[in-house]
Input
Amino acid sequence: MKRTSLCFLVLIAVFFSLFAPNKVSAQDFNFNKAYQDYQYSYEMYNSVYSEYSKAKDAYLKNSTLTLKEDARKKTLNMLQGRDELQKVYLTMLRMRLLENPGLTNDQKGSLYTKIDTEVSWYLNHKSQYLESDPLENLFGKSSESESRYKTNTSQVVYDSLFSVTLGDLVSLGDRQEKIYRNLRVIIDEQVSSGKIRIDPFNRWFTDIESVSRILKENEESAKIRIQKLYSESYSSPAGTYSSAIEILSQSVNQQKQLNSFLNEVLTSIINQQ
Amino acid sequence: MNENNINQTPVTPPNLVVDPSPMNVPTNKQKVADFLQKLKLKITPIIQKNKVLVIIALSVLGLMVLVIVIGLIFGKKNVKTTSPKPTSTPQVVFQEDVSKTEAPNTLTEIGNELDKIKKEITDLDVQNLPIRPPAVDYKISF
Output
């Protein structure tokens, strides 16, 4: 009897181990989890960087072979941690984009392709560090990471960050647009049934649409600005990002105004009923 | 001695060469039947010894198959509902809600939604500070 129950338990365990974990892990991995992973990797990097820094200083003060070997090992750890951090950071950005409701599938797909290429690069590059690498080799491989970050990764990072903000604003704008259309239908119906007058609303609609148009223009202008990440090699990606974000920042005020306009319309409908 | 042996071996019995009787060469069907027969002979005593075990194992396997089939049938439906929808078409969705918008509740809902949006705009981090690139050191040569 013991044997049969044991077999039964083993079969159940095999069954759940085959099917259950995949589902759970796929559902659980979201932006929050990715962000936690990133924070952990950042802490790890800071830790190994601190060890590297101390070992480097010790070697520079007293250039013995033992201290050089210690510095070499700490440098290796730090460089591997740095590649890992970039990989985890890019993955976190990807998850942020994935959960952004304001971006189209095409916009997301285009960014995923760029991010995935960078993730693969860091994954591959991390594996190229060898335990036996002398310091000079480590410095050379470190330069490859630096070069990659400058020529490719930073553009992808700032493009993604810009898209996160853009998507957030577009999502809010879509919701406001929906409310506006909803209010217009309510007003049209109540005007035709004689419950309320069209008088102030027709002018208010013009003002609301004007704000809405400004928002669209800002969006387009910011999109054009961010494309300079790829076309202007002389300007820094961080600078280009800041100037594009500045345009979107103006949209925040416009959206606040649009929200208060919509609130006024709503209050006015309620008061006239 | 060796030479004699070599001379003797190539002599094959005429029966085998001239008359390859089909009875001597088993067909695939026969092979399978033989294999199944042997398998049956081996398994039958084991099954008879552990009847309870076999019943439990078979019922668990049946349950697994059933769960997989159910999962496949209902799983597909879930995928459809959870798959990211393309960009929303507010106008169309909105038209469906129009008939209900006269109710004061809808105005209340709009008010709530506007409050929610106002809060989200206030909380919005345009600069994305928490997810800005990590500060890493690239100047490491010494």
Notes: Residues 135-192 of chain A form the longest helix (58 residues). Chain A touches chain B through 72 residues (CB under 8 Å). Helices of chain A lie at 2-28, 31-61, 65-98, 105-127, 135-192, 199-226, 228-231, 237-272.
